[in-house]
Amino acid sequence: MVDFNQTIDRLGTDAEKYELRQALFGTDKVLPMWVADQDLATPDFIVQALQKRLTHPILGYTLMSDRLSQAIINWQAQYHYAVQASEIVYTHNVANGFHLAVQAFTEPGDAVLVQTPVYPPFLKAAPSNQRKTVTAPLQWQDGNYHIDFEALESVIVEQQVKLLLFCHPQNLSGRVWQKSELLKLAELCLKHQIWVVSDEIHADMTFAPHQHVPMASLSPEIAQNTITLSSPGKTFNLGGLQTGYAVIANSKLRRRYIQACQAVSILEPNLMANIAMEAAYTPKGKTYRDELVAFLQSNIQRVTEFFQQHYPQVGVVQPQASFLIWLDFSALFSEQTALKSWLINEAGLGLNDGETFGKTAQALCA
Q1: I want to staple 206 with a disulfide (CB 3.0 to 4.6 A). Which of 18, 79, 275, 321 is the partner?
Q2: Pseudo-torsion of CA 94, 99, 102, 104, nearest 10°?
């Protein structure tokens, strides 16, 4: 059993979440929880694989073996997603992957659709590449977010959307999309000839009874319209190694994506990322993942009980996947500035400002 309660001092390791406290919050006296970076040890079997390679004194150019693509194929098979080695394209992380998709599948000025509130880099990918971001806000109902399909189609038609950046599971609420919702969304995108980029990096941490259904696994036709992005980075705490990959069944889309990668000289993972990904996607990795999920559920329960006891006015969105928690302070604060000041100066917490996830997220934090 993994000891997830071990306290690890990250000071002196250039850990981003700690080093940027002063710049982001005006003080280093906050507990930094503003980035999806766990304070958990990277699994020992991954560290050992890296250490074994480091016993060799040369870290030269390395030809990536077929073992990594086979590890990805085996890992995705647990979700009934049949991936072929030829469909895999390596990126340097998932965010980098959807920037590449914007470059590959749209033209300057095109509309790229995102569903807010959402992981902030989604909102930046289009304008960073001379495209425009258009939003279709998710609908809050029965304690979680839902897709308003009628409003979504209106935006698609009015804005002539070319590409959808889809967060699956949803970051930051942890919403796991059901198969019926995915089918309806995929059919809508096929109808309007919109490519779907499905970010599935948090999927490995889905909580039972919910089940992760990869968008591209729904049907061969939907697979031809989908670019799946994933990485072991979140589950196994490998953010510093810059790991990621795309799965693209459509050969024409894949060629365009590879061209976008080649244009910025992204050709394959670095040596250590290669080793870490291969070590993560193993039976040991599945065992670790299962233990992690149980630990995360316990932590979420503790957070929920704390707010119920001490701040019952705060809404705690119950995630269906991953380690992120969406908090609603609107019953306590009407001004975002006052909320942020209280969190930093009174609670001693460095959280994400909800407004960075979209205009609909005022008085929310994660």
Answers
A1: 321
A2: -90
